[in-house]
Amino acid sequence: MGTFMMAYLAVWLAVVFYVGRLGVRQHRLQRTLHTLQERIQRDADQRESLAKSA
Amino acid sequence: MASKLWWLIHKDLVIEYRVRQAWPAMLLLGIIVAVVFNLQMDLLPEQRPAAAGALLWLAILFAGLVAIERTGAAEQQDGCWDGLVLFPLPSSLIYVAKLAVNFIALLALECVLVPLFVVLADIPLLRHAWAMLLVAVLGSLGMAAVGTLVSAMTHGLRQRGAILSLLVLPLLLPVVLAGAEASRLVAVGDVGTQWWRWVQFLGAFAIVFTTLGIVLFGFLVEE
Amino acid sequence: MGIITTSKSGRPVLWTSLVAVLLTGAIVAMYLAPTEQTMGDVQRVMYVHIAVAWLALLGFVAMAACGLAYLLSRNLWWDQWSMATCEIGWLCSTLTLVTGSLWAHAAWGTWWTWDPRLVSSFILWAFYSGNLILRSGLDDGPQRARLSAVLVIIGVADVPLVVMATRWFRGIHPVSPAMEPSMRYVLLASMVGLTAIMTLLLVRRRTQLQHESLVMQLQMQADEN
Questions:
Q1: How far apart are CA C153 and CA B149, in angstroms?
Q2: Is this complex scored with an ipTM above 0.90?
Q3: How many interchain CB pairs under 8 A, B with C?
Q4: pTM for this structure?
Q5: What is the DSSP string of B131-161?
Q6: Which residues, 6 or more positions from B191, have their beta carbon under 8 angstroms from its beta carbon?
Q7: Which residue from A27, B96, B194, C139 has the least number of CB within 10 angstroms?
Q8: Alpha carbon distance B108, B104 (integer Å)
Protein backbone atom coordinates (compact mmCIF):
# COMPACT_ATOMS: atom_id res chain seq x y z
CA MET A 1 0.00 0.00 0.00
CA GLY A 2 2.93 2.34 0.69
CA THR A 3 3.96 2.50 -2.95
CA PHE A 4 0.44 3.31 -4.04
CA MET A 5 0.21 6.06 -1.45
CA MET A 6 3.46 7.55 -2.70
CA ALA A 7 2.35 7.48 -6.33
CA TYR A 8 -1.01 8.95 -5.38
CA LEU A 9 0.69 11.63 -3.33
CA ALA A 10 2.88 12.52 -6.31
CA VAL A 11 -0.19 13.11 -8.48
CA TRP A 12 -1.88 15.03 -5.68
CA LEU A 13 1.16 17.26 -5.17
CA ALA A 14 1.48 17.88 -8.89
CA VAL A 15 -2.13 19.00 -9.14
CA VAL A 16 -1.78 21.22 -6.06
CA PHE A 17 1.42 22.68 -7.47
CA TYR A 18 -0.21 23.46 -10.78
CA VAL A 19 -3.32 24.99 -9.25
CA GLY A 20 -1.07 27.06 -7.00
CA ARG A 21 0.88 28.28 -9.98
CA LEU A 22 -2.35 29.16 -11.76
CA GLY A 23 -3.36 31.19 -8.72
CA VAL A 24 -0.04 33.03 -8.52
CA ARG A 25 -0.19 33.93 -12.19
CA GLN A 26 -3.78 35.08 -11.88
CA HIS A 27 -2.83 37.26 -8.96
CA ARG A 28 0.05 38.79 -10.86
CA LEU A 29 -2.18 39.35 -13.86
CA GLN A 30 -4.74 41.17 -11.78
CA ARG A 31 -2.06 43.37 -10.26
CA THR A 32 -0.70 44.28 -13.70
CA LEU A 33 -4.20 45.07 -14.87
CA HIS A 34 -4.81 47.22 -11.82
CA THR A 35 -1.69 49.33 -12.29
CA LEU A 36 -2.55 49.62 -15.97
CA GLN A 37 -6.01 50.90 -15.20
CA GLU A 38 -4.59 53.42 -12.77
CA ARG A 39 -2.12 54.60 -15.37
CA ILE A 40 -4.76 55.00 -18.04
CA GLN A 41 -6.92 56.92 -15.58
CA ARG A 42 -4.03 59.18 -14.61
CA ASP A 43 -3.20 59.88 -18.25
CA ALA A 44 -6.81 60.74 -18.94
CA ASP A 45 -6.96 63.10 -15.93
CA GLN A 46 -3.77 64.77 -17.01
CA ARG A 47 -5.09 65.32 -20.50
CA GLU A 48 -8.30 66.74 -19.09
CA SER A 49 -6.54 69.22 -16.84
CA LEU A 50 -4.28 70.24 -19.70
CA ALA A 51 -7.31 70.85 -21.88
CA LYS A 52 -8.93 72.94 -19.12
CA SER A 53 -5.89 75.13 -18.56
CA ALA A 54 -5.54 75.74 -22.28
CA MET B 1 15.82 24.69 -60.57
CA ALA B 2 18.61 22.15 -60.49
CA SER B 3 21.22 24.79 -61.25
CA LYS B 4 19.90 27.04 -58.48
CA LEU B 5 20.07 24.12 -56.09
CA TRP B 6 23.60 23.39 -57.18
CA TRP B 7 24.62 27.02 -56.60
CA LEU B 8 23.19 26.99 -53.11
CA ILE B 9 25.12 23.83 -52.27
CA HIS B 10 28.24 25.05 -54.07
CA LYS B 11 28.18 28.32 -52.10
CA ASP B 12 28.24 26.48 -48.77
CA LEU B 13 30.92 24.03 -49.85
CA VAL B 14 33.17 26.83 -51.13
CA ILE B 15 32.71 28.73 -47.86
CA GLU B 16 33.60 25.59 -45.95
CA TYR B 17 36.66 25.02 -48.10
CA ARG B 18 37.91 28.60 -47.69
CA VAL B 19 37.05 29.34 -44.07
CA ARG B 20 36.90 25.80 -42.63
CA GLN B 21 34.26 26.78 -40.13
CA ALA B 22 32.65 23.44 -39.32
CA TRP B 23 34.45 20.42 -40.67
CA PRO B 24 37.69 20.51 -38.65
CA ALA B 25 35.77 20.93 -35.39
CA MET B 26 33.37 18.17 -36.38
CA LEU B 27 36.10 15.72 -37.39
CA LEU B 28 38.21 16.47 -34.33
CA LEU B 29 35.29 15.99 -31.97
CA GLY B 30 34.39 12.76 -33.77
CA ILE B 31 37.92 11.42 -33.38
CA ILE B 32 38.15 12.44 -29.73
CA VAL B 33 34.79 10.90 -28.89
CA ALA B 34 35.72 7.72 -30.76
CA VAL B 35 39.02 7.38 -28.91
CA VAL B 36 37.53 8.16 -25.50
CA PHE B 37 34.68 5.71 -26.04
CA ASN B 38 37.10 2.98 -27.06
CA LEU B 39 39.40 3.53 -24.07
CA GLN B 40 37.03 1.60 -21.87
CA MET B 41 36.27 -1.23 -24.25
CA ASP B 42 37.78 -4.19 -22.44
CA LEU B 43 35.11 -6.47 -23.80
CA LEU B 44 35.18 -9.98 -25.15
CA PRO B 45 35.37 -10.13 -28.96
CA GLU B 46 31.74 -11.30 -29.26
CA GLN B 47 30.46 -8.44 -27.10
CA ARG B 48 32.35 -5.80 -29.00
CA PRO B 49 30.16 -5.34 -32.11
CA ALA B 50 27.09 -4.44 -30.03
CA ALA B 51 28.95 -1.85 -27.96
CA ALA B 52 30.95 -0.47 -30.87
CA GLY B 53 27.86 -0.11 -33.07
CA ALA B 54 26.11 2.02 -30.47
CA LEU B 55 29.23 4.09 -29.74
CA LEU B 56 29.90 4.66 -33.44
CA TRP B 57 26.46 6.17 -33.93
CA LEU B 58 26.68 8.24 -30.76
CA ALA B 59 30.01 9.62 -32.00
CA ILE B 60 28.44 10.42 -35.38
CA LEU B 61 25.51 12.08 -33.62
CA PHE B 62 27.60 14.31 -31.35
CA ALA B 63 30.11 15.34 -34.00
CA GLY B 64 27.41 15.74 -36.65
CA LEU B 65 25.49 18.03 -34.33
CA VAL B 66 28.54 20.28 -34.12
CA ALA B 67 28.69 20.53 -37.91
CA ILE B 68 24.97 21.29 -38.20
CA GLU B 69 25.16 23.85 -35.41
CA ARG B 70 28.17 25.65 -36.89
CA THR B 71 26.92 25.80 -40.49
CA GLY B 72 23.68 27.24 -39.12
CA ALA B 73 25.50 29.74 -36.92
CA ALA B 74 27.62 30.94 -39.85
CA GLU B 75 24.48 31.94 -41.74
CA GLN B 76 23.46 34.18 -38.88
CA GLN B 77 26.43 36.51 -39.30
CA ASP B 78 25.97 39.77 -41.23
CA GLY B 79 22.36 39.02 -42.10
CA CYS B 80 23.29 36.17 -44.47
CA TRP B 81 20.23 34.19 -43.53
CA ASP B 82 17.82 37.07 -44.13
CA GLY B 83 19.44 37.65 -47.50
CA LEU B 84 19.16 34.01 -48.41
CA VAL B 85 15.50 33.87 -47.47
CA LEU B 86 14.79 37.01 -49.50
CA PHE B 87 16.04 35.40 -52.72
CA PRO B 88 13.22 34.55 -55.14
CA LEU B 89 13.57 30.85 -54.47
CA PRO B 90 11.05 28.43 -53.01
CA SER B 91 11.94 27.90 -49.35
CA SER B 92 11.89 24.12 -49.82
CA LEU B 93 14.80 24.53 -52.23
CA ILE B 94 16.83 26.25 -49.50
CA TYR B 95 15.96 23.38 -47.19
CA VAL B 96 17.08 20.77 -49.70
CA ALA B 97 20.35 22.64 -50.28
CA LYS B 98 21.09 22.94 -46.57
CA LEU B 99 20.13 19.31 -46.11
CA ALA B 100 22.52 18.28 -48.87
CA VAL B 101 25.40 20.23 -47.32
CA ASN B 102 24.82 18.68 -43.90
CA PHE B 103 24.45 15.27 -45.50
CA ILE B 104 27.81 15.64 -47.25
CA ALA B 105 29.42 16.71 -43.96
CA LEU B 106 28.01 13.65 -42.17
CA LEU B 107 29.23 11.35 -44.92
CA ALA B 108 32.71 12.86 -44.64
CA LEU B 109 32.58 12.32 -40.91
CA GLU B 110 31.62 8.68 -41.39
CA CYS B 111 34.46 8.17 -43.86
CA VAL B 112 36.77 8.98 -40.94
CA LEU B 113 34.88 7.39 -38.07
CA VAL B 114 34.02 4.00 -39.57
CA PRO B 115 37.65 3.08 -40.38
CA LEU B 116 38.67 4.52 -37.02
CA PHE B 117 36.25 2.20 -35.25
CA VAL B 118 37.50 -0.73 -37.31
CA VAL B 119 40.98 -0.02 -35.99
CA LEU B 120 40.22 1.03 -32.41
CA ALA B 121 37.45 -1.41 -31.54
CA ASP B 122 38.81 -4.15 -33.77
CA ILE B 123 35.49 -5.00 -35.39
CA PRO B 124 35.14 -5.86 -39.12
CA LEU B 125 32.69 -3.11 -40.12
CA LEU B 126 34.12 -3.03 -43.64
CA ARG B 127 33.86 -6.73 -44.34
CA HIS B 128 30.54 -6.02 -46.02
CA ALA B 129 31.45 -2.55 -47.21
CA TRP B 130 28.35 -1.99 -49.36
CA ALA B 131 26.07 -2.95 -46.45
CA MET B 132 27.84 -0.49 -44.14
CA LEU B 133 27.66 2.17 -46.86
CA LEU B 134 23.90 1.74 -47.20
CA VAL B 135 23.42 2.06 -43.43
CA ALA B 136 25.67 5.12 -43.30
CA VAL B 137 23.97 6.87 -46.22
CA LEU B 138 20.41 6.34 -44.96
CA GLY B 139 21.34 7.14 -41.36
CA SER B 140 23.08 10.36 -42.40
CA LEU B 141 20.13 11.38 -44.52
CA GLY B 142 17.76 10.99 -41.58
CA MET B 143 20.09 12.86 -39.25
CA ALA B 144 20.64 15.67 -41.73
CA ALA B 145 16.89 15.98 -42.42
CA VAL B 146 16.03 16.43 -38.74
CA GLY B 147 19.14 18.46 -37.94
CA THR B 148 18.62 20.95 -40.76
CA LEU B 149 14.98 21.51 -39.85
CA VAL B 150 15.64 22.02 -36.14
CA SER B 151 18.68 24.18 -36.91
CA ALA B 152 16.45 26.53 -38.90
CA MET B 153 13.96 26.45 -36.04
CA THR B 154 16.51 27.70 -33.53
CA HIS B 155 17.75 30.55 -35.74
CA GLY B 156 18.19 33.76 -33.79
CA LEU B 157 17.61 32.20 -30.38
CA ARG B 158 19.76 32.91 -27.39
CA GLN B 159 21.77 29.83 -26.39
CA ARG B 160 21.07 28.38 -29.79
CA GLY B 161 23.52 25.48 -29.55
CA ALA B 162 22.13 24.17 -26.28
CA ILE B 163 18.53 24.29 -27.44
CA LEU B 164 19.45 22.72 -30.77
CA SER B 165 21.06 19.66 -29.21
CA LEU B 166 18.28 19.46 -26.64
CA LEU B 167 15.69 19.17 -29.39
CA VAL B 168 17.68 17.06 -31.82
CA LEU B 169 18.93 14.32 -29.48
CA PRO B 170 15.52 12.84 -28.60
CA LEU B 171 14.33 13.18 -32.19
CA LEU B 172 17.31 11.22 -33.46
CA LEU B 173 17.12 8.37 -30.98
CA PRO B 174 15.48 6.07 -33.57
CA VAL B 175 18.34 6.71 -36.02
CA VAL B 176 20.95 5.98 -33.36
CA LEU B 177 19.24 2.74 -32.32
CA ALA B 178 18.68 1.59 -35.90
CA GLY B 179 22.17 2.58 -36.99
CA ALA B 180 23.73 0.86 -33.99
CA GLU B 181 21.85 -2.37 -34.54
CA ALA B 182 22.41 -2.40 -38.31
CA SER B 183 26.14 -1.74 -37.79
CA ARG B 184 26.33 -4.55 -35.24
CA LEU B 185 24.75 -6.93 -37.73
CA VAL B 186 27.21 -5.79 -40.41
CA ALA B 187 30.10 -6.38 -38.02
CA VAL B 188 28.99 -9.92 -37.17
CA GLY B 189 28.45 -10.59 -40.87
CA ASP B 190 24.70 -11.17 -40.57
CA VAL B 191 23.35 -9.06 -43.42
CA GLY B 192 20.08 -10.95 -43.77
CA THR B 193 16.42 -10.13 -43.20
CA GLN B 194 16.96 -8.54 -39.79
CA TRP B 195 19.59 -6.20 -41.13
CA TRP B 196 17.33 -5.36 -44.06
CA ARG B 197 14.49 -4.48 -41.69
CA TRP B 198 16.70 -1.91 -39.93
CA VAL B 199 17.80 -0.50 -43.28
CA GLN B 200 14.17 -0.13 -44.28
CA PHE B 201 13.52 1.58 -40.97
CA LEU B 202 16.34 4.06 -41.58
CA GLY B 203 15.02 4.64 -45.10
CA ALA B 204 11.52 5.27 -43.79
CA PHE B 205 12.87 7.70 -41.19
CA ALA B 206 14.81 9.60 -43.85
CA ILE B 207 11.79 9.77 -46.18
CA VAL B 208 9.37 10.87 -43.44
CA PHE B 209 11.57 13.66 -42.12
CA THR B 210 12.83 14.89 -45.49
CA THR B 211 9.21 15.21 -46.61
CA LEU B 212 8.20 16.92 -43.36
CA GLY B 213 11.18 19.24 -43.72
CA ILE B 214 10.26 20.23 -47.27
CA VAL B 215 6.67 20.88 -46.20
CA LEU B 216 7.38 22.64 -42.90
CA PHE B 217 10.53 24.62 -43.69
CA GLY B 218 8.49 27.41 -45.25
CA PHE B 219 6.78 28.06 -41.93
CA LEU B 220 10.12 28.52 -40.21
CA VAL B 221 11.58 31.15 -42.53
CA GLU B 222 8.57 33.38 -43.13
CA GLU B 223 8.62 36.83 -41.56
CA MET C 1 -11.59 44.45 -19.26
CA GLY C 2 -14.49 42.91 -17.40
CA ILE C 3 -13.60 39.40 -18.54
CA ILE C 4 -10.65 39.03 -16.23
CA THR C 5 -12.40 39.89 -12.98
CA THR C 6 -14.67 36.81 -12.93
CA SER C 7 -12.03 34.34 -11.79
CA LYS C 8 -12.69 34.40 -8.03
CA SER C 9 -16.15 32.86 -8.19
CA GLY C 10 -14.96 29.74 -10.01
CA ARG C 11 -12.36 28.79 -7.43
CA PRO C 12 -14.36 26.94 -4.73
CA VAL C 13 -16.02 24.78 -7.40
CA LEU C 14 -12.64 23.97 -8.88
CA TRP C 15 -11.12 23.03 -5.55
CA THR C 16 -14.07 20.98 -4.33
CA SER C 17 -14.32 18.97 -7.52
CA LEU C 18 -10.57 18.34 -7.57
CA VAL C 19 -10.52 17.10 -3.99
CA ALA C 20 -13.64 15.00 -4.50
CA VAL C 21 -12.39 13.27 -7.64
CA LEU C 22 -8.91 12.59 -6.25
CA LEU C 23 -10.16 11.25 -2.93
CA THR C 24 -12.83 9.04 -4.49
CA GLY C 25 -10.22 7.70 -6.88
CA ALA C 26 -7.88 6.82 -4.03
CA ILE C 27 -10.57 5.10 -1.96
CA VAL C 28 -11.80 3.08 -4.92
CA ALA C 29 -8.29 2.08 -5.90
CA MET C 30 -7.33 1.14 -2.35
CA TYR C 31 -10.42 -0.70 -1.10
CA LEU C 32 -12.74 -1.61 -3.97
CA ALA C 33 -10.23 -2.91 -6.47
CA PRO C 34 -9.15 -6.54 -5.93
CA THR C 35 -5.59 -7.29 -4.83
CA GLU C 36 -3.38 -8.64 -7.57
CA GLN C 37 -2.04 -12.15 -6.95
CA THR C 38 1.67 -11.96 -7.69
CA MET C 39 2.42 -8.29 -7.06
CA GLY C 40 -0.07 -7.65 -4.24
CA ASP C 41 -0.91 -4.11 -3.24
CA VAL C 42 1.96 -2.69 -5.29
CA GLN C 43 -0.08 -3.32 -8.41
CA ARG C 44 -2.55 -0.62 -7.31
CA VAL C 45 -0.06 1.95 -8.59
CA MET C 46 -1.32 0.91 -12.01
CA TYR C 47 -4.54 2.89 -11.60
CA VAL C 48 -2.58 6.11 -11.27
CA HIS C 49 0.26 5.21 -13.58
CA ILE C 50 -1.71 4.12 -16.64
CA ALA C 51 -4.04 7.10 -16.30
CA VAL C 52 -1.23 9.68 -16.34
CA ALA C 53 0.64 7.80 -19.07
CA TRP C 54 -2.46 7.87 -21.25
CA LEU C 55 -2.87 11.58 -20.58
CA ALA C 56 0.75 12.28 -21.50
CA LEU C 57 0.28 10.53 -24.81
CA LEU C 58 -3.12 12.09 -25.50
CA GLY C 59 -1.71 15.51 -24.63
CA PHE C 60 1.08 15.10 -27.15
CA VAL C 61 -1.29 14.23 -29.99
CA ALA C 62 -3.63 17.06 -28.96
CA MET C 63 -0.70 19.48 -28.88
CA ALA C 64 0.35 18.50 -32.39
CA ALA C 65 -3.23 18.86 -33.60
CA CYS C 66 -3.33 22.38 -32.11
CA GLY C 67 -0.01 23.17 -33.77
CA LEU C 68 -1.29 22.02 -37.13
CA ALA C 69 -4.51 23.97 -36.64
CA TYR C 70 -2.43 27.05 -35.87
CA LEU C 71 -0.30 26.71 -39.00
CA LEU C 72 -3.44 26.34 -41.11
CA SER C 73 -5.57 29.03 -39.48
CA ARG C 74 -2.95 31.46 -38.09
CA ASN C 75 -5.17 32.07 -35.13
CA LEU C 76 -3.24 32.50 -31.86
CA TRP C 77 -6.20 30.95 -30.05
CA TRP C 78 -4.82 27.57 -31.15
CA ASP C 79 -1.40 28.44 -29.83
CA GLN C 80 -2.86 29.14 -26.40
CA TRP C 81 -4.38 25.66 -26.41
CA SER C 82 -1.09 24.20 -27.57
CA MET C 83 0.83 25.95 -24.78
CA ALA C 84 -1.63 24.94 -22.07
CA THR C 85 -1.62 21.35 -23.33
CA CYS C 86 2.16 21.35 -23.28
CA GLU C 87 2.29 22.37 -19.62
CA ILE C 88 -0.32 19.86 -18.50
CA GLY C 89 1.23 17.19 -20.72
CA TRP C 90 4.65 17.82 -19.23
CA LEU C 91 3.16 17.42 -15.78
CA CYS C 92 1.49 14.12 -16.71
CA SER C 93 4.61 12.90 -18.45
CA THR C 94 6.72 13.66 -15.36
CA LEU C 95 4.15 11.86 -13.22
CA THR C 96 4.32 8.87 -15.58
CA LEU C 97 8.06 8.62 -15.00
CA VAL C 98 7.75 9.13 -11.23
CA THR C 99 4.90 6.67 -10.64
CA GLY C 100 6.42 4.19 -13.08
CA SER C 101 9.72 4.41 -11.27
CA LEU C 102 8.03 3.79 -7.90
CA TRP C 103 6.23 0.79 -9.34
CA ALA C 104 9.38 -0.57 -10.95
CA HIS C 105 11.27 -0.24 -7.69
CA ALA C 106 8.61 -2.17 -5.80
CA ALA C 107 7.94 -4.80 -8.47
CA TRP C 108 11.28 -5.33 -10.21
CA GLY C 109 13.63 -4.06 -7.51
CA THR C 110 15.06 -1.31 -9.70
CA TRP C 111 14.12 2.32 -10.26
CA TRP C 112 14.86 2.29 -13.95
CA THR C 113 15.67 -0.19 -16.72
CA TRP C 114 16.09 0.32 -20.44
CA ASP C 115 12.82 -1.29 -21.27
CA PRO C 116 11.28 -0.02 -24.56
CA ARG C 117 8.27 1.50 -22.85
CA LEU C 118 10.44 3.33 -20.36
CA VAL C 119 12.63 4.74 -23.11
CA SER C 120 9.58 5.83 -25.09
CA SER C 121 8.03 7.63 -22.14
CA PHE C 122 11.35 9.26 -21.36
CA ILE C 123 11.61 10.54 -24.93
CA LEU C 124 8.06 11.86 -24.70
CA TRP C 125 9.07 13.74 -21.57
CA ALA C 126 12.13 15.09 -23.39
CA PHE C 127 9.91 16.39 -26.21
CA TYR C 128 7.62 18.15 -23.78
CA SER C 129 10.58 19.68 -21.96
CA GLY C 130 12.24 20.71 -25.22
CA ASN C 131 9.10 22.44 -26.37
CA LEU C 132 8.77 24.29 -23.07
CA ILE C 133 12.39 25.42 -23.27
CA LEU C 134 12.05 26.50 -26.91
CA ARG C 135 8.97 28.51 -25.94
CA SER C 136 10.69 30.11 -22.96
CA GLY C 137 13.42 31.42 -25.29
CA LEU C 138 10.94 33.26 -27.53
CA ASP C 139 8.59 36.19 -27.09
CA ASP C 140 4.85 35.74 -27.06
CA GLY C 141 3.46 35.96 -30.58
CA PRO C 142 3.21 34.47 -34.07
CA GLN C 143 6.88 33.49 -34.33
CA ARG C 144 6.78 31.42 -31.16
CA ALA C 145 3.54 29.82 -32.26
CA ARG C 146 4.99 28.87 -35.65
CA LEU C 147 8.24 27.40 -34.34
CA SER C 148 6.56 25.47 -31.58
CA ALA C 149 3.93 24.13 -33.99
CA VAL C 150 6.61 22.81 -36.36
CA LEU C 151 8.47 21.23 -33.45
CA VAL C 152 5.47 19.37 -32.08
CA ILE C 153 4.48 18.16 -35.54
CA ILE C 154 7.89 16.60 -36.14
CA GLY C 155 7.78 15.31 -32.56
CA VAL C 156 4.51 13.54 -33.10
CA ALA C 157 5.88 11.98 -36.28
CA ASP C 158 8.89 10.81 -34.29
CA VAL C 159 7.07 9.14 -31.39
CA PRO C 160 5.84 6.07 -33.32
CA LEU C 161 9.34 5.61 -34.73
CA VAL C 162 10.85 5.80 -31.23
CA VAL C 163 8.39 3.18 -30.01
CA MET C 164 9.11 0.93 -32.99
CA ALA C 165 12.89 1.24 -32.76
CA THR C 166 13.01 0.61 -29.03
CA ARG C 167 10.79 -2.46 -29.36
CA TRP C 168 12.86 -3.95 -32.14
CA PHE C 169 16.15 -3.14 -30.45
CA ARG C 170 17.69 -6.37 -29.13
CA GLY C 171 14.33 -8.07 -29.68
CA ILE C 172 12.51 -7.17 -26.45
CA HIS C 173 8.74 -7.54 -26.74
CA PRO C 174 6.66 -6.43 -23.76
CA VAL C 175 3.18 -7.92 -23.44
CA SER C 176 0.03 -6.47 -21.97
CA PRO C 177 -1.16 -8.57 -19.04
CA ALA C 178 -4.71 -9.91 -18.84
CA MET C 179 -6.84 -8.03 -16.34
CA GLU C 180 -9.77 -8.96 -14.18
CA PRO C 181 -13.00 -7.12 -15.20
CA SER C 182 -13.36 -5.30 -11.86
CA MET C 183 -9.79 -4.06 -12.17
CA ARG C 184 -10.56 -2.81 -15.62
CA TYR C 185 -13.53 -0.81 -14.32
CA VAL C 186 -11.46 0.80 -11.59
CA LEU C 187 -8.77 1.64 -14.11
CA LEU C 188 -11.32 3.13 -16.47
CA ALA C 189 -12.85 5.20 -13.66
CA SER C 190 -9.41 6.41 -12.63
CA MET C 191 -8.58 7.39 -16.20
CA VAL C 192 -11.85 9.27 -16.62
CA GLY C 193 -11.37 11.05 -13.29
CA LEU C 194 -7.81 12.16 -13.96
CA THR C 195 -8.69 13.17 -17.51
CA ALA C 196 -11.48 15.34 -16.10
CA ILE C 197 -9.13 16.99 -13.60
CA MET C 198 -6.48 17.69 -16.19
CA THR C 199 -9.05 19.01 -18.67
CA LEU C 200 -10.30 21.39 -16.00
CA LEU C 201 -6.78 22.65 -15.37
CA LEU C 202 -6.19 22.87 -19.13
CA VAL C 203 -9.27 25.00 -19.75
CA ARG C 204 -8.41 27.34 -16.89
CA ARG C 205 -4.82 27.72 -18.03
CA ARG C 206 -5.93 28.42 -21.59
CA THR C 207 -8.29 31.15 -20.39
CA GLN C 208 -5.48 32.60 -18.31
CA LEU C 209 -3.15 32.65 -21.31
CA GLN C 210 -5.78 34.52 -23.29
CA HIS C 211 -6.12 37.06 -20.50
CA GLU C 212 -2.37 37.43 -20.29
CA SER C 213 -2.12 38.26 -23.97
CA LEU C 214 -5.06 40.68 -23.66
CA VAL C 215 -3.37 42.52 -20.81
CA MET C 216 -0.16 42.62 -22.82
CA GLN C 217 -2.03 44.22 -25.74
CA LEU C 218 -3.62 46.78 -23.43
CA GLN C 219 -0.24 47.61 -22.02
CA MET C 220 1.19 48.17 -25.48
CA GLN C 221 -1.73 50.40 -26.40
CA ALA C 222 -1.21 52.42 -23.24
CA ASP C 223 2.49 52.77 -24.05
CA GLU C 224 1.69 54.10 -27.50
CA ASN C 225 -0.65 56.80 -26.24
A1: 12
A2: no
A3: 80
A4: 0.87
A5: HHHHHHHHHHHHHHHHHHHHHHHTTT-TTHH
A6: B128, B131, B185
A7: C139
A8: 6
